[in-house]
Design brief:
The protein is an alpha/beta fold. It has a single domain (2-225), classed as 3-Layer(aba) Sandwich (Rossmann fold). The chain contains eleven helices and ten strands. The longest helix is centred in the middle third of the chain and has 16 residues, at 174-189.
Length: 277
């Protein structure tokens, strides 16, 4: 079953002098439990598309259903935002309280959770992201990666079926990025959440079940990471630099050195180079 079904979406931001479409004829489907990366350079339409899924942008043209709910019906908006949670680039913009447990509880209160259950739900959400025991702390005293995990806990507390990560690793250092990526994989593999990860980082796109490559408001290619990321002409046409292992694979092939398959990660590249010796 498709948990997201979009057909022929068009969108233009008000006031754009050129009236250029930010989304132009987008068709998008996602199965429950799938992990999809929206890959593309800045301005390609990734975030604009994702904000339609969460109801943050109104549908101008086309059809869109989230878990069977028609986004055109205003009566569905509240349920859509509960089914489809969103984690943004800057976690500080998501905090409304100076105490972590109060911040997470705020969302639960808005969805009329029984008051006697809220403390347990807050603890459960923090445990899912490895932040149990931080209930009484201030989010502003945490590292970037910890802040992002607390912001994610706030989303997880309302039990969404879909979680969108909108460039949520962009402002983090290497350690913080690894923490978030590990959490995303855990949510996908152990919790069976449907994940949409928006990024321009090739090493993050490798983790997905499917990559939808975007350029100028359109999805120009869709497929498994090994097909999309190993296609140098395709990535170049989307103004993206192919992954380093892919570029090295091509350089080696041009030099007459042939590996068994095109590696996507440094680990895969190292393994194949070792087999040559």
């Amino acid at each position: 079953m498709d948990i997201i079904e979009a057909k022929n979406l068009f969108y233009t931001y008000e006031g754009e002098a050129s009236q250029r479409y930010s989304l132009e004829g987008i068709d998008f489907r996602m199965k429950a439990g799938e992990f999809v990366v929206l890959l593309g350079q800045n301005g390609s339409g990734k975030s604009t598309l994702a904000k339609h899924f969460n109801g943050l942008l109104p549908l101008q043209q086309g059809n869109l259903y989230i878990a069977g709910l028609d986004v055109r019906d205003p009566a569905n908006l509240w349920d859509i935002r509960r089914k489809c949670g969103m984690v943004f680039q800057n976690p500080d913009n998501q905090f409304i309280s100076s105490v972590i447990e109060e911040d997470i509880a705020f969302g639960l209160e808005n969805y009329d959770f029984p008051p006697e259950q809220i403390a347990a739900e807050v603890h459960k959400a923090l445990a899912l992201v490895g932040m149990a025991g931080f209930e009484k702390k201030s989010p502003h005293m945490l590292s970037g990666g910890q802040k992002q995990r607390v912001a994610l806990a706030g989303v997880l507390a309302i039990s969404p079926e879909i979680i969108i990560f909108d460039e949520s690793t962009a402002m983090l250092d290497i350690q913080g990025r690894q923490e978030i990526l590990q959490t995303i994989q855990q949510l996908h593999q152990a919790e069976h959440k449907s994940i949409i990860h928006i990024t321009h980082r090739m090493e993050e796109a490798v983790l997905a079940d499917r990559i939808d490559l975007m350029k100028a408001g359109r999805i120009v290619a869709s497929g498994p990471p090994r097909r999309i990321l190993a296609d140098l002409p395709l990535l170049t046409s989307a103004n993206l630099l192919p992954p380093l292992p892919v570029r090295l694979y091509e350089d080696l092939r041009n030099a007459g050195i042939h590996l068994a398959e095109c590696p996507l990660t440094i680990h895969e590249l190292t393994e194949q180079l070792c087999r040559l010796s």
